[in-house]
């Protein structure tokens, strides 16, 4: 059982956003996806969640071809994702934001309320669920976005720059939350991120993209020791754009 991309290419006119990329995400592992701006990271996430059609290649979910399925079919099959912009309903409470998502995905109002309460206990303890979403801090908004993606207990979770704009303390809190998600849900987690300290502390494997192509795949130690990767992407600082 795995989420697999094979030879994925995505072209926009004469521009290749992905060029023959192959990628695998297994249940229970955390994989980091790094590369400079324009490397094709978000395009690959869009492919893996059904939001981008392929120019060439295949996507398989548990051995079944899935590339031509719409995003809702990916979601029903157990693939959830976050977006760089959380887009909460600011006038609704935090709990109501989760309930709306759950009802839209087929849960009853009572079941959605129960599930939202459980998620908020995990991600925003205390009485934060009753407050308007517009009153949340930036880091809390990102957590609600992850909670919303977890609402239907996916088997694969794709996180697109979850630490963007966070302070150091919020990043560490996020790291701990992602580790808990792996344990609680036993799902495969893909983390697209520019924060190298987070990626190296969190991930089992790291996949490096450059100009739409795979530059390297390996453990954090292997990627750290890869001269080409280190010189090109990791040599400025641990939080440099990757």
Descriptive notes:
By secondary structure, the chain is an alpha/beta fold. The protein has helices at residues 41-48, 71-76, 94-104, 109-123, 138-149, 168-185, 196-202, 220-225, 227-234; strands spanning 3-12, 15-25, 30-34, 56-61, 64-65, 79-81, 156-160, 188-192, 205-210, 213-218. The strands form two sheets. Strands 6-7-8-3-9-10 form a six-stranded mixed beta sheet, with helices on both faces. A four-stranded antiparallel beta sheet has the order 2-1-4-5, covered by helices on one side. Helix 3 (94-104) crosses helix 4. The longest helix is centred in the C-terminal third of the chain and has 18 residues, at 168-185. The protein is globular, with a radius of gyration of 18 Å. The two termini are 29 Å apart.
Topology:
Layout lengths: L2 E10 L2 E11 L4 E5 L6 H8 L7 E6 L2 E2 L5 H6 L2 E3 L12 H11 L4 H15 L14 H12 L6 E5 L7 H18 L2 E5 L3 H7 L2 E6 L2 E6 L1 H6 L1 H8 L8
Parallel strand pairs: 3-8, 3-9, 6-7, 7-8
Antiparallel strand pairs: 1-2, 1-4, 4-5, 9-10
Helix pairs in contact: 3-4
